[in-house]
Amino acid sequence: MSIKLEMEHTPGPWAISEFATQNGAPIIRAGTCWRKQPRDIAKVVYHAGSEDPEVTANAHLIVTAPELLEACEAAIPCLEDWVITTGFGETNRRDRAALVVLKQAVAKAKGLV
């Protein structure tokens, strides 16, 4: 059974604003296709300062969240079908483990765990 609930987060696409920062920290903004003005989603900060490469890496991870969630949700039924058709064995054990990880990630992203 796949996990698929109504989306409650701000829909993507999200992007790192090239112009909006707060004290040098990247601002994550939602797209403008459904709004007249962009909507700020997050400000990425790190205690060592905004010039830290980890801040930029975190910002890139955050902006891909909607697409990653969508990809995980799309992969779950495919992997479920694959696990059913391949039967048992080492490959199937790894595939079932991957399916568990995907379902847990989706549940965490949706605030279910």
Short description:
The chain has 113 residues and is of the alpha+beta class. Helices cover 47% and strands 18% of the residues. The two termini are 17 Å apart.
What this model shows, in words?
The chain is of the alpha+beta class. The protein folds into two domains: 14-64, no CATH class; 67-109. 47% of the residues lie in helices and 18% in strands. Strands 1-2-3 form a three-stranded antiparallel β-sheet, covered by helices on one side. A hairpin with a 2-residue loop joins β1 and β2. The radius of gyration is 18 Å and the shape is elongated. The relative contact order is 0.16. The model has no long low-confidence stretch (mean pLDDT 81).
Q: Assign the structural class, choosing from mainly alpha, mainly beta, alpha/beta, alpha+beta, or little secondary structure.
A: alpha+beta
Strand order of the largest sheet: 1-2-3
Q: Beta-strand level of the residues, as a percent range? A: 15-25%
Q: Spans with pLDDT under 50 lasting ≥5 residues?
A: none
- Radius of gyration (CA) equals 18 Å
- Overall pLDDT metric: 81
Instruction: Please provide the count of β strands.
Output: 3
Amount of helix = 40-55%
Number of helices: 3
Order of helices and strands: EEEHHH
